[in-house]
Amino acid sequence: MNTRATIGLLAIAVILLLASSSVYVVKETQKAVKLRFGEIVEEDVPPGIHLKIPLVHKIRKFDARILTLDAETESFFTSERKRLMVDSYAKWRIDDVGLYYRSTGGEMAVAQNRLAARINNGLRNQFGTRTLHEVVSGERDQLMTDILESLNENVSDSLGIDVIDVRVKRIDLPDEVSDQVFRRMVSEREKEAREIRAKGLERAEKIRADADRQVTIIEANAYRESEQIRGKGDARSTAVYAQAFNKNPEFYAFTRSLSAYRSTFSNKGDVLLLDPENEFFRYLDNASPP
Questions:
Q1: Of 73, 124, 163, 268, which one's alpha carbon is 20 to 30 angstroms from that of 255?
Q2: Arithmetic mean of pLDDT over the chain
Q3: Is the model's pLDDT at 203 over the cut of 60?
């Protein structure tokens, strides 16, 4: 290979190298800034294929998707001066890539450290104005909303970041006060249980007394109705007996006497002393009714 061919190949290689260095691609999931000797000349390069001057321009690309900041567990005090251990996280993304680069130098670690510090300050301020019950359950959603609003007002203008969401993963009591709080919670639950039992016993007594009263009323009404029915039955029975007696009084007297004899002489050990002329022996003295 002669010298001219070698020079030609080298020239082609240099041209290809310069061409490849002059073209860059920004993806849809990226944000980019164009620098000229370290100074921003284009703050938000749109997605696509672009040209740059090699050795003059430098392209810095950043992830434009939603990112997660998992903050370290921090200690905060409530308005009651109760210390809590809070574990939180935040969802964020780059909004103003030029401001983001100028404020952080394009370093992810710097951005997350500054964002974490602002989240901790926001949590500390919000926890400090609320009671333990409010931060645990009562106003937890409102607390997150307030933190998100105040945080975006701060980091949007200073870091070029848009905070999508802030959430508290877990709230724990410090070890030195957990036992004390647990005992107090047990005592409160026992007190509540005693009050509920007392109300239940009171209601049970009322129900039992009402049931006893209704039983007494029902029994009295039933006894009254039974006596009325029995009285009507006795009256009807007496009327039937009287009607039958009036049809043949002598036969009725005879059957009554036979019943009396049967009852009187049913037991052989009984002794009955009567005058032989007594009316009781009327039908024994005569073989047939008069």
A1: 268
A2: 80
A3: yes
pLDDT, one tens digit per residue, over 210-247 is 999 999 999 999 999 998 998 888 888 888 877 777 77
Could you tell me which of 92, 28, 207 has the C-alpha nearest to residue 215?
207
Question: Which two tokens mark 167?
Answer: 């959430």
Proportion of the chain in helix, strand, coil states, percent, rounded to 5 = 60, 20, 20
Whether 102 contacts 67, CB under 8 Å: no
Strands 161-172 and 83-94: antiparallel
| DSSP code for 29 | T
In this predicted structure, the answer to whether residue 1 has a pLDDT above a threshold of 60 is: no
Side-chain-side CA neighbours of residue 107 (13 Å): 7
Q: What is the pLDDT of residue 289?
A: 47
51-88: per-residue pLDDT in tens?
888 878 888 899 999 999 888 888 888 888 878 888 88
The answer to whether the predicted template modeling score (pTM) of the entire model surpasses 0.85 is no
Max intra-chain CA distance, the chain: 181
Residues listed for the chain: 290
Nearest to 86 by CA among 142, 144, 169: 169
70 burial via Cβ count (<10 Å: 0-12, 13-18, 19+): exposed
DSSP secondary structure code for residue 269 in this structure: T
| 3-state SS class at 278 | coil
DSSP string, 37-82: TTEEEEEEEPSEEEE--TTTEEEEEEE-S-EEEEPPPEEEE-TT--
